[in-house]
Specification:
Elements: H1 20-25, H2 29-62, E1 70-77, E2 80-86, E3 91-97, E4 100-105, H3 106-167, E5 172-177, H4 185-198, E6 202-206, H5 209-214, H6 225-255, E7 260-265, H7 277-286, H8 310-323, H9 341-356, H10 359-362, E8 369-377, E9 390-398, E10 408-416, E11 422-433, E12 436-443, H11 446-453, E13 463-472, E14 475-484, E15 490-497, H12 502-505, E16 511-514, H13 523-526, E17 535-536, E18 543-544
Parallel strand pairs: 5-7, 6-7
Antiparallel strand pairs: 1-2, 3-4, 8-15, 8-16, 9-10, 9-13, 10-11, 11-12, 13-14, 14-15, 17-18
Length: 545
């Protein structure tokens, strides 16, 4: 064993490990173990010899009073034995080792051998005990070395994961506040900016492009038709360029781990509310923004002319809302369900916070908005629809949840009917918090979509449905007609206040039953294979079996 350095009072000196491999390889536990094993082997060989010698001495002592000599077989070598006579004797010669043999009286020889046998047995027991202890210490040391190695691997893995997390882009969100004149957009921009800045987000405020240009002396009512068209075209081009400038900054922030929100005062669809349909389509084509095959779905009947007065404000409000119908995250904040202007601004903040999953902060603002769901009876696609709508083919697929915490993850593919435009996104729905569910939605590219499709939940089927999006009484609705599973099931969804009644929320020309939070009507339950045939629908009512 190596000598341990210590000070005069016996405090050991801690070794400095310069070369870890050499330090670990330099342990002398193997030589110590070999030394004790060698002692054990020696004692296990010596004890039988002492026992045999003691037996002979005891035998000679028993024959001490006999007059006849002892007849025995004597081994000359491995293959040669002879008869021998041992005359009566009172002494024996004992081999002590180191070429030393001494003569002892039989009784003394017996006592000596018994003493040596007892000492040898005690020594063997001590060596076996020490060997067992040494083996335990060696095992403990090896386990400790393995634990140190495993801990190092774990620490490296944690550091690697932290690096991966640090390299994961931070989210950036784009919020467009739009509507007719004096609708509260400017105040809402200020309130939202304060909220997100207090939460540590970088906030970019995109100004209203038309206001900037009007500030240069432009008076819209004085323009001729060709001037108005050129001006609107410039507004749209400048608006898109300004938004893209802020988007590029937000993307760079995202790479640096900085959460960013872009708040737009009006969006790129707003100019369509101030133009004739044919002028809007021509403008999109000139700016290379037209989606081929989708011409019939652009803001169809928005032909208002810019003049003064409340009647125009109401008309523009409706036209702007219609321009955004079909957007996946459209939220309408009406004037009917609020008592004053500040409550309307609070509703804006609450709706944005709910959409982004910031429920802890959204609860401070006004009424709580929740997604309501209604079962629609006696409806078919061929029936006359009393309001304008946009129609989409939608496919949902749920992914495997490996966490086991109730979180639901799904991917969606949406195609507008009559076009080839495809929109892909993923949604993570977390377990309820304070009685409210939180959903985080983000757009994904085709490569991400195909990658996530490999993780689909084998216990659930794909959901295919036709979705109609429409506005009614300043509220935005989505009507889903299921193709599979549960063919013929029709559900209506809308984000509405908790305290509104079903009569207020639901269009009177739809025969509806409120099934919000009712088991069996969530997409997650409908997609379950064993529930594939649980909801039976026909031309009449749908029943949950």
């Amino acid at each position: 064993m190596a000598t341990i350095d210590a000070n005069p009072r016996g405090i050991p000196r801690a070794p400095f490990v310069d070369n870890v491999s050499a330090f670990l390889d330099g342990s002398d536990h193997e030589s110590t173990l070999a030394k004790f094993q060698e002692i054990q082997v020696g004692l296990e060989t010596k004890i039988p010899e002492i026992e045999k010698s003691l037996e002979l001495v005891v035998f000679l002592a028993s024959k001490e009073d006999d007059s006849e000599p002892i007849i025995t077989d004597f081994e000359l070598n491995d293959t040669l034995w002879v008869k021998a006579k041992i005359p009566k004797t009172k002494t024996v010669n004992l081999w002590l080792g180191a070429n030393v043999m001494l003569e002892y009286p039989i009784e003394e020889a017996k006592q000596l051998l018994e003493s040596k046998l007892g000492s040898a047995r005690i020594s063997l027991a001590q060596v076996e005990e020490d060997l067992e202890y040494l083996k335990e210490q060696i095992t403990t040391m090896e386990v400790n070395m393995a634990r140190v190695y495993n801990d190092d691997v774990r620490q490296r893995k944690v550091q690697k994961n932290m690096q991966v997390v640090s390299q994961t882009p931070a989210p950036f969100k784009v919020i467009c506040l739009t509507g007719g004149p004096c609708g509260g957009k400017t105040s809402s921009v200020s309130i939202l900016s304060d909220l997100f800045e207090s939460l540590g987000w970088r906030v970019y405020r995109v100004p209203e492009t038309a206001t900037i240009l009007f500030g240069g002396g432009v008076h819209f009512p004085d323009m001729e038709e060709d001037q108005a068209y050129s001006f609107q075209k410039s507004i749209l081009a400048v608006m898109i360029q300004i938004e893209n400038t802020y988007r590029e900054l937000a993307k760079l922030n995202s790479k640096r781990g900085i959460k960013t929100v872009i708040i737009c005062d009006r969006g790129a669809m707003d100019p369509s509310a101030y133009m004739k349909r044919e002028d809007w389509l021509r403008m999109l084509d000139e700016l290379h923004l037209a989606a081929k095959g989708a011409e019939s779905f652009y803001s169809l009947e928005n032909n208002a002319t810019r003049t003064e007065g409340l009647e125009l404000a109401r008309a523009l409000d409706t036209a702007v809302m219609s321009a955004w119908v079909g957007h996946a995250s459209l939220q309408v904040i009406d004037n009917v369900s609020v008592q004053n202007f500040m409550e309307k601004c609070d509703r804006v903040v609450q709706a944005v916070s709910t959409r982004l999953g910031l429920t802890a902060d959204s609860n401070r603002y006004g009424k709580q908005v929740k997604k309501h769901k209604f079962l629609v009876k006696n409806f078919s696609l061929g029936m006359q629809f009393p309001v304008q709508y946009r129609e989409f083919l939608v496919e949902h697929r749920y992914l495997v949840n490996t966490q086991g915490d109730g979180t639901q993850t799904r991917i969606r593919r949406r195609v507008e009917v009559g076009t080839s435009t495809v929109h892909l996104n993923s949604t993570i729905r977390y377990p309820p918090q304070n009685g409210q569910r939180v959903e985080i939605r983000r757009n994904i590219n085709p490569r991400e979509f195909e990658s996530l499709r490999t993780q689909v939940d084998p216990t659930r089927v794909a959901i295919n449905k036709v979705r109609r999006c429409f506005l009614f009484n300043d509220r935005y609705y989505q009507l889903d007609i299921y193709k599979s599973p549960s063919q013929g099931l029709v559900l209506l969804e809308a984000y509405l206040d908790y305290d509104e009644t079903g009569k207020v929320m639901v269009p009177e020309w739809l025969d509806c039953e409120d099934v919000t939070d009712k088991p069996g009507y969530s997409m997650y339950d409908l997609a379950l294979k064993e529930n594939d045939e649980m909801i039976v629908c026909g031309t009449g009512n749908c029943e949950v079996l």
